[in-house]
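CORE FACILITY INTAKE
Project code: CF-77B
Contact: R.S. (postdoc)
Sample description: multi-component assembly, two entities in total
Requested service: structural model of the whole complex
Turnaround: standard
Below are the sequence entries exactly as provided by the requester. Do not edit them.
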Amino acid sequence: MEQAKGAAVVIIGGGVTGLSAGWWLARSGVDVLVLEKSIVGWEASGRNGGGATHVYSPFGLEEQRLWPQMDELLGYPTEHQPYRIGVALSEAQLALARRWAEIGETRGFKWELLDRQQLKELVPIVGDNAIGGTYLHFGGHANPQRTVQAYAWALQDHGGRILQHTTVTGLTMRGGRVTAVETTQGAFGADTVIIAAGPQTGLFANMLGVSLPLAPARVEMIATEPLPLLRHGGVGGNGLYGRQTLRGNLVYGGGPHEWINVPDMATPDHPNTPLVRNLARRLAELLPGAAHLRVIRAWGGIVENTPDGLPVIDRLSSPDNVILATMSSVGFGLSPAAGKGISELVMHGRCLFADLSALALSRFADTPPDWRERAGWIPTNAPVAETAAGGSL
Amino acid sequence: MTVDKRSIADKAPRPERHVAVVVVGAGAAGVAAAIEAARAGVEVLLIDENPVDNDMMAMDVPLYFGQRMQPSVRNRALMMERVVETNPALAEAHEAGVDVQLGTYVWGAFVNGPTVRELPGPMLGLADDRRSWLVGYDRLIVAAGARDVAIGFPGWERAGAMGANGAVSLLTRYRALGSQRMVIVGSGDLGLRTAALALESGVAVAGIVEVTNAVRGDEEIARSLASRGVPFYTAHTIREARGRVGEIESVVLVQIDGNLKPVPGSEREIACDTVCLALGLAPNVEILHLVGAHLVFDSGLGGWIPELNDQMQTSVPTVFAAGDCTGVHDGMLADPEIARTQGRLAGHVAAESLGAAPGQEAGQRRADITPHIPLPHRGRGPQFELSGAATRRGLSRSEGAVYTYWQQWLQSLIHAGGWEVNICQCEEVTRRELVDVKPPRYLKWESPQMEARSLDTMLHDGPVNQDQIKRLTRAGMGPCQSRRCREQVGLLLALAAGTSIDRIPLPSFRPPIRPLPLNVLWPTDEPPAMREDWVSWFGIPTQFSPHWEAGMAIAEPTAQTRLILSDE
């Protein structure tokens, strides 16, 4: 096989976190190579709610500062739109929406409490079942599919490289460091390795003798036919996350997830289940004026969670040239800031704009091996009649 | 054991009914399968979506109806009568004890797999115009038919551009085709038979257009059509369809040379209200894809088809397929007995696999069917044998290679109509925008970086992938669920990328495979736990807590709980 050309920084995983980190590094002049087993952003990075409102996070302020600039910085459209509206159908939902708004207020952002009438003026398809809502003058949303491709292209524009359809099969260790990443297309030498492989991140950590507790799960979304654009597309509530796209489609997800196992490096299927019906109901309740809209698509995605649901962004102590990066199922919106933070971790040894100590791997040092069983974060026992893909005849 | 209350663990969907054998599609193959299985003594549910709701028809779903439905299609009771009346085999099925449900859509098929373990068993999502429900099955027989392949030309957005299967459906099942005078595009058996049917039904046929140099279909039918005054325009293509206020009033044809390019001055305008595309049919494999059946590409059979064994069984042992959805060729149009025989075999083997009709009787019955069964479906390549009428007519395999034929049409239409033609009507994406991988026009995006990107630059990063192009251009993302553009997008991408279409991975199908309203799709049988425990994300209290407030946790409220802050 032809000698594969390594890079100063090799990134395992062409999802939104790895691509953003790679783009930030490339635009700083660092030689980067992204290895992706299928197509960039093909997994949860390209199929999610597109929300960009995570001010509670250590990356939150930078997320809010960066998103409005991303189109210009990248040179490609992300469809980022500002503002969020929270619709509440019950007192409990209103309390949650307020809490979210107040967290933003703590960080210096403005918001308004809306009564039903004010809410309907902003979102005419809200119904009389709504009791009120919140109008956040911060946060927003973007198009995940367009954004992941934008990161990838912009990374290339800065001289970075992406190898798609390239599966990582192993890590070469020498002198206590990872010196090369082995793939189906040959081995790539690396000074630093970033592992941002989504649900598979834990498998790579295992190869290094490091335990990174992650539980993968499947989640689902639905999309309707377009309707005329609302003033703000970032409308959520009633246990749903999502948005109206700039094309006009309502795209929403939420509800129960299914814990699964991702046994290997293969690209998992992510089928839908009858949950699409339950999603349809929640959406019609949230926006009764849109109940007649047709659902034209649904999809599923596989995401991973750490035991506390918070990211692990950390440079390992041994081998000391490896950075683990999982966003624990909340990666898209935070990606401009998370990628920047990771790039600073590579270039400066620490994130310059935020304290990432809350995201250190060491917090799971005492997590027992059977933590998933204890939490009930394990696959449902498939019943006996498992005739789906091949019962006996 | 701990159960995560926010997970699906204790709220998996339960079908409202379980049936031993479900047959999807009440065409020749489906009805035959249902009758065969019922006679073997198993419970059979036969589902067909006809009569299709008028609003769905207006979206060109499931067939390319081209707005040429007469107003009578709004009369559901009348249409129900006609669908029953025009398909006498339905009565036979009813007699045999088959539960026949008409006007019922299959919008989803759900099975367990590596990343879905929750289901109590395989099930279908069904719906009528009012509600949706789930039905479990032991065996599934898919006889979902085939769909028209469309290739666009200037003006094809106008009402009156339609597909031959759509026209045939309106003429035969509904007796409600609202055309007076049609031009038919394509002179294979599909086009010729559609023309003959149109004439019989009192619709004038103003011409049959053929891109190749000779009429392709059955000579006898062609002669008969010619003798009735139908003009044939071989070595011609479409320049445009014209008309005021969105209706087709004429079509302009142009002669083409050996390079598929228009011959200057050869334009000819023909008055018509309908341009009926009879380019070919694509098997309806959505359900088969959703259940995970292995699909293979066969240009001689319309593209992606299920891999079957000699008992019409797919790679998923519980799922069978029969009729046009297993691959369609001219022989099948000529002789519905081919589809019927496939259906009977599928019905028989499905029933037998459930322990019905055991013993000698079954062996005898299968022997009765098998010798007659044409099997054009045993995978691909050299094993392929044309069958029945097609063999008798001496068709060779290469003549059946529809994708080569479709490429000829596409190239001639590009030469005659240009690159600024919508390839995706729903999302208004032109051919040029597709191969330039342009972001949609409504973004009004311009940048030098974007300008430098195209299909060519994407090919440096990997082989062409229709789903990826779809995400970026939105071609195929509209309410018709890519029924009008799927094949032509594939053809154009193959042409532009210099690859063959069978090397482009099958673009995905996602449920719902019929565009159903939220308030039809929504469940009325939701388990209480679904509502009680519903949260927007995982319900991990620390996930969205402010990082500067140590110990803070926010439990998202459910229907049963209020917002809980753990520092309270």
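Facility notes:
- The CA atoms of residues 45 and 99 of chain B lie 5 Å apart.
- Chain B touches chain A through 96 residues (CB under 8 Å).
Invoice: internal transfer
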